[in-house]
Amino acid sequence: RVKYSTNLRYPSNGDGNIYLSIFFNYIFRTSEETRPRLNHQVCGCDLRKMFPDC
Known about the structure:
Blueprint: H1 4-7, H2 14-29, H3 35-44
């Protein structure tokens, strides 16, 4: 239930935006079977600071 659209504002620097673009494209390209596991890993790692919704 991660709000991808609202999380795209983190971080504000250009390099981070490029990373997020690649990162989210990778998630969206994954299969339905893999996506829930990826979301769990994202919410459980240090990216929690970047995505407070997790």
